[in-house]
Amino acid sequence: MGLERLFQAKSVAVVGASATPLKLGHTLLTNLIEGGFRGPLYPINPKEREILGLKAYPSLSAVPDPVDLVVISVPAAVVPAVVEEAVKKKAGAAIIVSGGFREAGNAEGERQLVQTARAGGLRVVGPNCQGLAYLPNRLCATWPVQRLEGPIAVVSQSGTVAAALADWATEDGLGISCMLALGNKTDVAETEAIDFLAGDGRTKVIAVYSEGLGDGRKFMEALKRATAKVPVVLLRGGRTPTGHAAAQTHTKSLAGQYEVFASLAEAAGATVVSSVEALYDAAKAYGGIARPAGRRVAIITSSGGAGVLATDAGVEAGLEPARLSDATTTALREKLPPRCSVRNPIDLTGDGTAEQYEAVIRTAAPDPGVDAFLAIFGDPIPGAAATVKKLQQEQAKPIVVVFLGGGEVEARERQAFAEARIPVFSSPERAMRGLGLVAAGRGI
Amino acid sequence: MGLERLFQAKSVAVVGASATPLKLGHTLLTNLIEGGFRGPLYPINPKEREILGLKAYPSLSAVPDPVDLVVISVPAAVVPAVVEEAVKKKAGAAIIVSGGFREAGNAEGERQLVQTARAGGLRVVGPNCQGLAYLPNRLCATWPVQRLEGPIAVVSQSGTVAAALADWATEDGLGISCMLALGNKTDVAETEAIDFLAGDGRTKVIAVYSEGLGDGRKFMEALKRATAKVPVVLLRGGRTPTGHAAAQTHTKSLAGQYEVFASLAEAAGATVVSSVEALYDAAKAYGGIARPAGRRVAIITSSGGAGVLATDAGVEAGLEPARLSDATTTALREKLPPRCSVRNPIDLTGDGTAEQYEAVIRTAAPDPGVDAFLAIFGDPIPGAAATVKKLQQEQAKPIVVVFLGGGEVEARERQAFAEARIPVFSSPERAMRGLGLVAAGRGI
After folding, report:
1. Residues 336-375 of A with CB under 8 A from B
2. To 10 degrees, the CA torsion angle through B362, B365, B367, B372?
3. Are the folds of A1-129 and A291-440 the same?
4. A238·B312 Cβ contact <8 A
5. What is the spatial distance between Cα B326 and Cα B335, in angstroms, rounded to a whole number?
6. Residue B52 in contact with residue B76, Cβ under 8 Å?
7. Three-class SS of residue A222?
């Protein structure tokens, strides 16, 4: 049994759906509705006849039609009976949000539950998990609600880490294809999820947070298959012995030797990072920056200092400063005021305008010495987002954007960039690290 | 001549003050007014009789009273005459915002200018700079306007980098004591600025961005003097050969060997970083986290995954997980629901409440095995800010805050933390790196 009836579920039942706002069974049903799920939704609750405008059923077996996915949010003691019912109902998958299993010392209860499910062909996400959003299917069986479909798939043992990445991707206007929080991952784990997502045709990068990976060989094989199609970024929790011990308390995973894991994963084509922000930044880069033909970057900046920092960071990220041709330099000299530097980094100074950024990129884009642009808006520059959007449509070389500063113009332009779905980096260093990853083409 | 008449100016003239909004000479005067400067302000403009409600003078010499500080925003060609006038007026310092000197190939003009100033006892900031905000004197001769006084002094060759740090410090509710953008630094440079700020009694940390440091030995000596009083964090632009070349185009500084510089600076007690965000994070930590008695951290989290990441990051930052005493563990077990883990990291799970964070910190604060707390709010937890504020007043052990997630509750709580002037870190890793610096006591 694959994961098709999980990700591509055509119908969903919510066992423990509640009419009471703020209860999890209410939130889950609300988010499925607000997420825009197009198939039938069945709230299951013996005490209600209708919840959120949907007919409620007293039990799974009372639902007259087939159910692909069963979302379970009831007390742990009741879960086994619901799983049995889901098997009888011939459901394809269950997401068990409820806690109270292995993580609470009830390993036996979890073992039995997965035994029942496996015998009945039911795939299980969780227990003790934050569920799944899969945007290509407008399926939002999680919280918070996810609406903005985009290139990044998040697969995480931790619901909080998953939600943080999804939040950041939404704020940045990039969006996600998937947010899968695995919890105790008694059945569905990283390996299969990565296999599915790498081949779904919608996911452009997979970001994984894991505290332990079960069958390491199978995982590495899946990683190789996946990175042949899309980049995979990995953050491992429990890298240090004490972190490992904390991970064991938390999810009882076995962590193994981190260094060995990291080198095998890199050899399998993954990008291995060591912080949650680096995980997001790498996913943002792979999902939001077009791959340049080479490593030579032309920097355009309104701040000389930011240009210097970008140059340093570019070198440290394995990039090279573009050497502009004499023709480009001469043309720039004609188009820009004398105060501007026309060598790379091209410094428009604090009086730089969006029109000048446009003139520079138009002039330098045909230069065969330039593979990509880094546009640093270090001052309030109205029109920045509209200009970059237009230039991205007109020519193929990637334009990576940094917007520094926290004033009104900056806030407005950041919003405009997000609406245009152009990722903005908050520092030259983060942007260059991202571009460096994409240019190196790791995992593609 | 020291820098007292610059930082502690009792009266300020703005040469090139303009009545036209959006002109720099208008912004500068506006910001001096809005920044709350308490001494007399003299707009100098031969074409106006009054600007922004203040009497305007045709020239510096027409001002009847003494002038400490002259802010100059006029075309480069006019600057030498203004400097001569400032000398005649016996002003103590000039901030030359105007560009068009060394950075534009006019090194000779700059040399003459500084000669005139030095002969006349006039200290010069700039030219080609974004000026100075010094909050203890409510002096805001820069842009954007700076109003929130706090612990961080920013000294930067780049105006954009200076403003980015000041913006971030304001957003975080920390605030700045100083934002000094040195530009071409033909006279006033890092060395003297650090000397002054380390001894002003208001600055708790100095963050420096520099692309080259003139007399290296004098700088290192100033660094030693300064770090005996307050931490100093250094970011050097032009670390790589190509970055160095970019820095030379930009400000014509000589960079020297970076590795030598970095090791000397570390030996002198400074914290050396390599990105603008690391510069800010370190300043935020030194300025916003009380120094703990030791390195043992108790982590309280609503997210097991974030607790694992924090544990890893803590070890990597030189910290240790606190071992709670049996008495503490027993007391926590009585106070918390069975689902919670009462060993470090203390995991309240996704249903954690502000009251539970309070109970944990109250219970664990007297434990001699705990030096500091890391409170991770990985879910929407109303009341988080009010609780931490209260606990910080009740007990002395530092509480470092991480707030993950981008929902409504999180936005509200972030705002409440900023209003309470408690810095919030956006990831466990950044928080632990900050706490690690403070616990190591570098530079104090």
Report:
1. 338-339, 341, 343-345, 347, 349-350
2. 140
3. yes
4. yes
5. 14
6. no
7. helix
Least Cα separation, residue B325 to chain A (angstroms): 17
pLDDT in tens, A330-347: 999 999 998 899 999 999
**Domains of chain A, residue spans:** 1-129, 148-288, 291-440
Do residue B311 and residue A168 have CB atoms under 8 angstroms apart?
no
ω into residue A345 within 30 of 0, thus cis? yes
From chain A, pick out residues whose CB is under 8 angstroms from the CB of B261.
Answer: none
CATH class of the structural domain B292-440: alpha beta
Residues A246, A249, A250, A256, CA torsion sign? positive
User: Which chain B residues are closer than 8 Å to A378 by Cβ?
Assistant: 160, 164
CATH T-level fold of B1-129: Rossmann fold (3.40.50)
Quick one: which of A158, A180, A181 has its CA closest to A250? Answer: A158
Per-residue pLDDT of chain A (444 residues; tens, 9 = 90+): 799 999 999 999 999 999 999 899 999 999 999 999 999 999 999 999 999 999 999 999 999 999 999 999 999 999 999 999 999 999 999 999 999 999 888 999 999 999 999 999 999 999 999 999 999 999 999 999 999 999 999 999 999 999 999 999 999 999 999 999 999 999 999 999 999 999 999 999 999 999 988 788 999 999 999 999 999 999 999 888 888 777 766 554 444 588 888 999 999 999 999 999 999 999 999 999 999 999 999 999 999 999 999 999 999 999 999 999 999 999 999 999 988 999 999 999 988 999 999 999 999 999 999 999 999 998 889 999 999 999 999 999 999 999 987 778 888 999 999 999 999 999 999 999 999 999 998 644
Q: 3-class SS at A43?
A: strand
Per-residue CA distances from B224 to A331, A418, B201, B230 (Å):
49, 45, 17, 10
> Pairing state of beta strands A54-55 and A69-72?
unpaired
Which architecture does CATH list for B148-288? Answer: 3-Layer(aba) Sandwich (3.40)
Helical spans, DSSP H, in B120-257: 159-171, 190-198, 216-227, 241-251
Q: Residue B273: in which H helix or E strand, if any?
A: strand B271-273
pLDDT tens digits, residue range B341-358?
A: 999 999 999 889 999 999
* Distance from C-alpha of A118 to C-alpha of B57, rounded to nearest angstrom: 88
Residues on chain B touching A185 (C-beta within 8 angstroms): none
Residue B424: its chain A contacts at CB < 8 A? none
Place of tokens 């999680």: A142
Closest approach of chain A CAs to the CA of B377, in angstroms?
A: 10
Cβ–Cβ contact B25 with A under 8 A: no
What values do phi and psi take at A246, rounded to 5?
-65, -40
Signed CA dihedral, A246, A251, A257, A258: sign only: negative
- Per CATH, is A291-440 categorized as 3.40.50.261? yes
With beta carbons less than 8 A apart as the criterion, state whether A124 and A114 touch. yes
Three-class secondary structure of residue B24 per DSSP = helix
Name the residue of chain A whose CA is nearest to B378's CA. Answer: A160
Model confidence, pTM = 0.94
**Residue pair B370/B298 in contact by the 8 Å Cβ criterion:** yes
Residue pair B368/B397 in contact (Cβ under 8 Å)? The answer is no
Contact flag A99-B130 (C-beta cutoff 8 Å) = no
Distance separating alpha carbons of residues B71 and A202, to the nearest angstrom: 57
| Separation of alpha carbons A153 and A178, rounded Å | 4
Q: Report helix, strand and coil shares of chain B as percent, to nearest 5.
A: 40, 20, 40
Determine the Cα–Cα distance for residues A291 and B58; give it in Å rounded to an integer. 58
Q: Which of B104, B159, B276 sits opposite A350 (nearest CB)?
A: B159
Q: State the smallest CA–CA distance between residue B277 and chain A in angstroms.
A: 7
